[in-house]
Amino acid sequence: MNEKAACVPERIKELREILEISALDMSKDIDISFDTYKKYEAGELDIPISVLYTIAGRLGTDVTVLLTGEEARMDSAAVCRKGKGVQIERYPGYEFASLAFNFKHRTIEPLLVTLDSSKPAAALVSHSGQEFNFIIEGQVKVTVVKTEHVLNPGDSIYFDARLPHAQSAVNGTAQFLTIIQE
Q: Which of 15, 22, 43, 61 could be joined to 9 by an S-S link, Cβ 3.0–4.6 Å?
């Protein structure tokens, strides 16, 4: 886990304690089991981006604060130069860069995701909202429930993110743009 990702659980715990919210109450408020929440906060379990949004909402802050420790500053436009998104490695072989991290009050989250097929594939996840994936390079297998879709550069998929889903690189590395709407 990279340095920024390692700090996310610490920031969550610190903000929760400042707001005098118990870990048990937090887990109930965000509808996550207490055991899972404790593992998120201890850094023992990767926190899905959708859960980060839910936690940020409960803490009354922007997800940027959790990711970077800084407030988003822009409210009219935010430019993200190539390679300058906030990089987070969720687990080996799956990393993303937040491309709009500096825009206040985002209603969508555009992420550049890089996958490595030599690492174990991600488990199925589900979260609120909808999701759009646009393949930039390589082949990406997108599983939605039990249906697998192998997508090539230029292909895209849009789906209900409440359904269990996962993405994995087919051969080598792959990169795609995902836009998550909560």
A: 43
